[in-house]
Sequence to fold (646 residues):
Amino acid sequence: MSTSKSNVHAHKAEIFCKDESRVDWHSKALWTLREKRDRAAGSIPEWEQLRQIGSEMKLHTLTHLTEYLEEFEQNCIKNNIKVHWAKDGAEHNRIVHEILAKHHVKKVVKSKSMLTEECHMNPYLEERGIEVIDTDLGERIIQLAEMPPSHIVVPAIHMKKEEVGDLFHEKLGTNAGASDPLYLTRAARQHLREKFLSADAAMTGVNMAIADQGAVVVCTNEGNADMGANLPKLQLHSMGIDKVVPNLESAAVILRTLARNATGQPITTYSSFYRGPQDGGEMHVIIVDNGRTDMLKDKILAEALKCIRCGGCLNTCPVYRRSGGHSYNYTIPGPIGIAVGAQHDDTNSIAWACTLCGSCSYVCPTKVPLDKIIHHHRRLKAEAGKLPYGKSNYMPLVGKFMASETALNCSMGIARMALKILPGSLLKPFSGAWGKYRELPVAPNSSFEAWFKKNRG
Amino acid sequence: MSSKQHILNALKSAAMAPHAMPTIDVAPRIDDLVGQFEANLITVAGTLHREGGLVNLQTTVDEHIAQGMQVISMVEGISGNREVSATAHELRDIDYAVIPGDCGVAENGAIWVNTKNLGHRVTPFICENLLLVIEAKSIVANMHQATSLMTLAPGEFGTFIAGPSKTADIEQALVVGAHGACSLNVYLT
Ligand code: SF4
Fold:
């Protein structure tokens, strides 16, 4: 393993955890979203029914992907939409660039798309002389700050308003020291309006692609996708193969759960259905694999593709909330980020950025079994001989040790004795990273085995 | 081999057993649809005008015009002071757009707007303020009913609009008025 320590999840989280008050603030901001989600879910008596239908509908689509993708393509063509297929991120970027180059595009307004992030499209286009402007406010903030997103729904959740104020002062010329969100948002509105009105093309992600309609659905609160796509004559939409749903009926199910589970809103402000280009315009859809068919080859990993990217599992995750989105070595952080990103993680550490508490699986609107998938990733890593930071060295020993009754009883006895008679300062160094933020336990008087024999045996 | 063929071939080795499509049969809440709609519209920062219909709306529009505002109306019977322009970009200074909605959704306050009658697709987004008009009897209980009623012909564009545009990207503080309209008033007829 050539992994340098600085890239493993625990180390990156440690950097984030240096500022304790920021960790508390971050955790609380996300927990607020979780609470809003609980209220929204609780206000719909059929919530559990919707989760069940959502899960089964996605399973159905994923197990009939060939039919639905072909149906979607045929209907798109009937609607005068041009469809492209890309095996991976590189091909996706190439296709996008070809379309833009053909139209002599210099400036593209983009609405949030985790897929284009996954493909690292922005730098690719910028190297080729095309300016890409992220138009979702959170995305624009981190684009100006030259950072990757730290959350899939609220990408700048890690930044404080004072930091945004300083950034806008430097980049957009707002007043020095201003940190009022209303003032800053208005400044961004002015700045981005000018970009919308002067762009040559627009790009969006896709929340759902409806097979029997040949239409794509894009959901935003800000209206940036619609301001973008409906001004210039050229619009491009990038989607993973997992975004297709059979029909309007199934799209309705997702529209009912997506925003409720993301931010607690009953629905996003705009849920837009594009079933063809505007008059005299051109509409392109790029269907991307980029590793998704590989995931489908593994029954357990495949279920991660039921995800509708609501971000609910991030908001509830005790590890994500306290380690920040930039610690995951992948564009998508949190439980779903581990589920879809662990196989690309050459530090082999993110599969362990999880307590297996299961809270994520419990809140997921399409019942992605996140804890089961993460556990499975650990097994895959172990089988491939890729356990992180020395786990591969000591875990087999731990196994042997735990299997031997004599060795275990004897050493546990010594440990209880040591905890009683030796000072903590002497013992703490032996507890390693575990003891860093924890107190040593109070030693019980006897082993559990002895206690059990005496009281229950 | 084309990339399409490559992807479709790769799908042949997918591991999950075929799963049947579930029946989507969710009981609608049909009590007081207008009341539910209004309550949800408020939660998404919109305002409902139940009484007065188009007459009330025209009075409001006239007041805006008297104050020097630019108003475009796509609703029959309501007159503004701006016509549909040759290009979408010329709508950049519209203060108020009056637009017909096809149906309202009680469970979330959203209104289905098919843009086929708007001249430019961008009208409901580029205006500073949005005035939507719907018939009270067009309000349905939930999204399942809404998607069965909404129309979206090949080539068309339509959108569910729930309130004015908004964002909470700066420290989770809700700010109404991101890139789209800064306010939404809904008039019932
Ligand atoms: S895995 Fe579930 S909870 Fe997490 S983002 Fe996806 S849909 Fe939402």
Notes: Residues 47 and 185 of chain B are 5 Å apart (CA to CA).
